[in-house]
Amino acid sequence: MKQLKLDGLIAATTTPFAEDRSLRLDDIAPMVDQLIASGVRGLYVCGSTGEGMSLRADERKLVAEAAISASAGRVPVIVQVGHNSLAEARKLAQHAEEAGADAVSATCPSYFKIGDVETLVQSMGDIASAAPGTPFYYYHIPALTGSSIDITEFMRRGGDRIATLAGLKYTNTLLHEFQSCTRVDPERFDVVWGCDEMLLGALATGAKAAIGSTYNVAAPLYLQVMSAFESSDHASARELQFRSVEMVEVMKRFPFHAALKAMMQMLGMPGGPCRLPIENLDVDAIDGLRQQLDEIGFFQWCGHEIN
Ligand code: MN9
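Above: inputs. Below: predicted complex with 2-(acetylamino)-2-deoxy-D-mannose.
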């Protein structure tokens, strides 16, 4: 199996769409270049931020291929293949492996909820076995999947039975649980933090890597958080992290992912609209977003040049 050790900031990339909501694959390469230039150390494609669940399976394959080719080995590409149909998820996982993904990741099915560890191990094992040569990361995001399971128990049992299990994308806010996850098998598992506005807390409990949506627009800020933390300058780290808290508060006043895409556009990256059921921002809302971001100094500290 390929080996991978994730570290630093991994952008949960958006999927560029044209005004008619069709894919704009050509926009992916320049976006990836700008993200890497801003300090991003990996790409997580077709996740929540990439509206993976709103894409057709054939589109998901095209987006994965475009991201892998755009990265050209510079940073690892993790392809999210979760689907309510495990058979479709398997096909996506197999495709990701064939296309050269560095890792695959999957949410659990979410229409029928998963209520126990055993069912989750079986479901994730089913997907992972379709990409037997590629590390697999379970995407733990209970707020969206609605499934609540004992995640450390999943890691223990999954570790025994899923040969490629390499870790988790931990998108929850329970720092104590996150810390327990990092202790299950630190040699083997990457436990990747998924709540950008709490990155500092996660660093304090041992996070080495983080996957998130706002690393698309403010990676340099978060890199400063990380370096202030590493040099034990906690006062600066807190101030810097609070900028992220305020930014996310502003974004959450709007349909979040549409606001993110609008911000990317402001920073010279292709954003485009979101697909239903995510609502888009009209011109007035975009102006309001820009103004509120301006008020918190976003354009001064985000670390990207303004379009
Ligand atoms: O997984 C993202 N989660 C979702 C990562 O998009 C649902 C996060 O990066 C959040 O968008 C971010 C803001 O709340 O932490």
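The chain has a mean pLDDT of 97.
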